[in-house]
Amino acid sequence: MNLKHTYIIIIFVALLSFLLAACELTSTQAPEDPTAIPLVQGFAVVAEGRLVPDESAQLSFMTGGQVAEIFVAEGDQVEAGQVLARLGDREQIESRLAGAQLELSAAELELLSAHQDLQALYDNWPAAATAAQEALTNARQQVHDTGRIYNYRTTPADQTDIDVAWSQVVLAEDDLDRAKEDFEPYEDKPENDLARAAFQSRLAEAQGAYDDAVRKYNSLVDPSSEFEISQAEADYRIAQARLEQAQEDFDELLEGPDPDDVALAEARIASAEARIVAAQANIAAAEAALDDLDLAATFAGTIVELDLILGEQVAPGQSVITLADFSRWYVETDNLTEIEVVDVSVGQAVTIVPDALPDVELTGSVDSIADFFEEKRGDITYTARILVDEIDPLLRWGMTVVVTFDREGR
Predict the structure, then answer these.
(1) Please, which residues bridge with residue 329 across strands?
(2) pLDDT per residue over 113-163, tens digit each?
(3) CA geometry: angle at 390 spanning 387 and 392, to 5°?
(4) What's the domain range around 353?
(5) Is residue 203 domain-resident?
């Protein structure tokens, strides 16, 4: 018979004795006596429980592997997040992490370069538009010049033009003869003689004018060859094609930078951003894999049990360390019946007597009551958690206690 049932029998016997005494009293006392004792009195709720720390956990590695390092011993106080033990075989994961970090740096540099190139397109656009306008102007001039030559090669000369050209040849030849006569007396003079230099310059100008006049006359008199005509036509067609291209380039630059260059820069940006996202994901995966090789404390507390040996293989999820927080102590009782739980409330004071120390009486209060029920031995029961005000140093985790809940009026 458990302790709770013993207490229930004792209470039941006391209640029966009380009822019998009350019956004897009522048989000798008038019903209207105002000093009569009520038939029913309230009794305290009593339950069994166990002493537990504020928090406890069975710690295990997220992955399997060989134990490489153990940083704690049983009884050590640890902080939340502190690494307690570590598995080996980290080199491959660290290599993946380093590679992902290098890729991230390279992708970030590429992204910066692509953004700079795109910005440069807009910064340089005014100068590019000006250059395109100049190229268009030059192309138009080239079309004009090559067209004039082509027309000249393909259009027969007028006799009047021929006569005028011949007159120019005669006049130029007369000027050349006079220049030769004027220079002849100074021909043997030193080259630094000023008079000689002046007449020599005049002779050169006269010779050039004469040669030009002769060429012009010959071009009018002698028809162009087929080669010259075809060459002039080819030059003219090429100039027209260049003009069309220059016009297209200029028209595109009127609304902004070259669309193809902008699209290329934007594609580089998108590619670099995708590389960054992939590298960041690889870094996160590698860091998570490294973290899985570390077993860390989930809260601040005491290492209660350490089941680890250097070099041994552990499986994922295998419990290897028991951690507990002894900063506060609780009693957990899971046998409050549905009849009893209605007389228990959060904050209610309790008296706690350990089975191992029956002369020690502790105090506490109800911290929480489970909303969900359990069914035990045919009874509907609820679990209550009781905060102990002050613990006796002789008590240990898991010791059994008797909890008496102070009676509250219903």
Answers:
(1) 53
(2) 999 999 998 888 888 778 888 898 999 999 898 888 878 777 766 778 788
(3) 120
(4) 44-88+300-405
(5) no
